[in-house]
Amino acid sequence: MAANFLLLNSDQTEVIVLGPEEPRNMVSKQILTLDGITLASSNAVRNLGVIFDQDMSFNAHIKQICQTAFFHLCNISKVRNILSQSDAEKLVHAFITSRLDDCNSLLSGSPKNSLKTDTIVVRQMTVMFLFVGGFLSDAGWYGDAEKVFLSCLQLCTLHSEVLHCYRAVECCVRLLHVRNGNCKYHLGEETFKLAQSYMDKLAKHGHQANKAALYGELCALLFAKSHYDEAYRWCIEAMKEITPGLPVKVVVDVLRQASKACVVKREFRKAEQLIKHAVFLAREHFGHKHPKYSDTLLDYGFYLLNVDNICQSVAIYQTALDIRQSVFGGKNIHVATAHEDLAYSSYVHQYSSGKFDNALFHAERAIDIITHILPEDHLLLASSKRVKALILEEIAIDCHNKETEERLLQEAHDLHLSSLQLAKKAFGEFNVQTAKHYGNLGRLYQSMRKFKEAEEMHIKAIQIKEQLLGHEDYEVALSVGHLASLYNYDMNQYEDAERLYLRSIAIGKKLFGEGYSGLEYDYRGLIKLYNSVGNYEKVFEYHNVLSNWNRLRDRQFAVADALEDVNTTPQQTQEVVQAFLLAQSLGPTRPCLG
């Protein structure tokens, strides 16, 4: 070695013997001398950060990774409250995920018993994976979070201890949340069944895990699939599981999901009480700049939009978007969904004015972010494209340039067709979401003067909605009103139009009261219809009805700030829960605007 100008460092030179155990032991006993340095073989040696053992099982390496990552995980958790989301991401990647990724291809094909021999290692790794997966999920990186949680579930199968069953249930709940967020609903259903199997194992050992979080996530899954009756039923089960000592995050999420389920069932009093308490809890516990607070605001905005308090819903959605942008930055899936919600509420709010610049900006921003992060055929694009198409259609109608109008309508048509195909692929033909897309196409075909195609789309939308939601649902009323407009303004089928207008008005009044904003278009449609057929007595009658409606709208929603009455709350969580369950036992409340 000296001839080649080389010198061994005795402190950093190690020897290991690999091979079958018996001959390996014989060789290991021999003492080697190399360049004047005496070397004895070791059971494990380190090479470029990887610990090799004589069996090539990498047990020592795995244990070292767990200990190091868990050490840094504990340190980060101590300062997490004073770190921004961006800084926390950097620390997790620098000290934890980088170590998990480093040379991990060497572990491919390793037997399960390489971990099974050390229960403490498995416990440390499951805690670490739950933390890292939760962090990735909160950041909106659903694909990476799903991989981590799947690895965590594999670890939980290595031991049959009760503790690992509890960990597996927790992991399933978080995996279900991730798959819901990533629109993997079929896999989400499998995850729920897996969680139930772990619950059954615990029950056999005389243990009982709280089901609030699991049932809340199932409610979210069913809601996303438009299975509203089932979602409502499971939200009741989730509310029953809320007990003192439950983590605030779980309570807030269950209240949010239950509120949304109540909204689509038109149980507005219940929905209002639940979502306002969720907003209050999130703000008090997490602070007014926390993502969890923005989550509750988005659901509060959903409630306000559905009870026709459109102006306040826009303000709430804007606040939620501001929080998410400050936490996550620009290119983030959570920011994209906030843009989309704000786009739609702005579109509804600006419908009568015809000024859609703000709504269009947020719709395009949502699409840009989603296409930057997710594949082109991802289901999350369906609703964003739908909102943009609705906006483009209204802009085209008000456009005085024929060429520009045709271009905008064609772009809207392409967006609607793309959304429809994504919805049919995910949900099938017989689904509320698919029906909404048919209805949107019907409106667009009317603007494109393709009246027969428009009629076909509206009738298809009504049939699906009636079978799924009943004959007196808000969604049915919307489609009925759109078909009435087609018959009235373009096809001169006045008797059919009158019957449909009156049906739409009756549903709107029953659900939302005399001041419902959607009544304006039905009233104006009837005035035009009665003018066309020469029934001037009815024209005068509905002019008076419209005037009364305007006066009601002026008096409605006197609260200047929708957050004013949720800054403080006289009720405790258990009081809210018990009030909800008591009202449920007494039967549905009468829908109202709260």
From TrEMBL:
Pfam entry (one): TPR_10
Pathway this chain belongs to: Protein modification; protein ubiquitination
CC annotations in GO: Cul2-RING ubiquitin ligase complex; membrane; microtubule; nucleus
Molecular function, one GO term: ubiquitin-like ligase-substrate adaptor activity
Membrane topology recorded in Swiss-Prot or TrEMBL: Peripheral membrane protein
PROSITE patterns membership: TPR (PS50005)
Subcellular localization: Cytoplasm, Cytoskeleton; Membrane; Nucleus
UniProt TPR repeat ranges: 435-468
Transmembrane segments: none
Keywords: Cytoplasm, Cytoskeleton, Membrane, Microtubule, Nucleus, Protein transport, Repeat, TPR repeat, Transport, Ubl conjugation pathway
Domain of life: Eukaryota
A single GO BP: proteasome-mediated ubiquitin-dependent protein catabolic process
Cited function: Substrate-recognition component of a Cul2-RING (CRL2) E3 ubiquitin-protein ligase complex of the DesCEND (destruction via C-end degrons) pathway, which recognizes a C-degron located at the extreme C terminus of target proteins, leading to their ubiquitination and degradation. The C-degron recognized by the DesCEND pathway is usually a motif of less than ten residues and can be present in full-length proteins, truncated proteins or proteolytically cleaved forms.
Classification via PANTHER family: AMYLOID PROTEIN-BINDING PROTEIN 2
Subunit annotation: Component of a CRL2 E3 ubiquitin-protein ligase complex, also named ECS (Elongin BC-CUL2/5-SOCS-box protein) complex, composed of CUL2, Elongin BC (ELOB and ELOC), RBX1 and substrate-specific adapter APPBP2. Interacts with APP; APP interaction inhibits the E3 ubiquitin-protein ligase activity of the CRL2(APPBP2) complex.
Name recorded for this polypeptide: Amyloid protein-binding protein 2
Origin species: Maylandia zebra
Top-level taxonomy: Eukaryota, Metazoa, Chordata, Craniata, Vertebrata
